Known about the structure:
The chain is built from no helices and 14 strands. By secondary structure, the chain is mainly beta. The strands form four sheets. Strands 6, 8, 11, 12 and 14 form a five-stranded antiparallel β-sheet that branches.
Amino acid sequence: xAMTVVATIGMNATVKAGGTxxxxxxxxxxxxxxxxxxxxxxxxxxxxxxxxxxxxxxxxASDTHQLDLAGDSGFFGETxxxxxxxxxxxxxxxxxxxxxxEVGVDAAAVPLFKAVTDGINVPAGYFLxxxxxxxxxxxTVTATTGDIISISNKDAVNAGQYQIILIGETA
Length: 171
């Protein structure tokens, strides 16, 4: 079965900061908006044709999940065959505030971080978004040597929960 991927990824942040500086009332309203529309296909900036999602996934205390982008089964039962990763959206939905999930550390990791020993800790209630709509920034997925997204539960007592969406290209 060929997968069709169509998505809209967006974030908006507007901050209103006010205060008194040297007796004068000041206000600052920075805003940041990012929106990408993804259409089905590959080989072009805003195209994608493979997706992996794990929603409400439970990870035991001190456990590690490895998502194999070139070998796991997708949600339709197909074998995933990512050759590029364009978007990673991760949220730690754990209910225990001390549950920190680390994303990224594995000897065969997709090169999201500078080194395979680098990762990012995502505390309960926090999220991580990485992606873009240019081919120049996509990450190459290489079967057996660079195809793993690792999620580790740093909490030795409590299980954690997470959601992740990965969007990319096949050959």
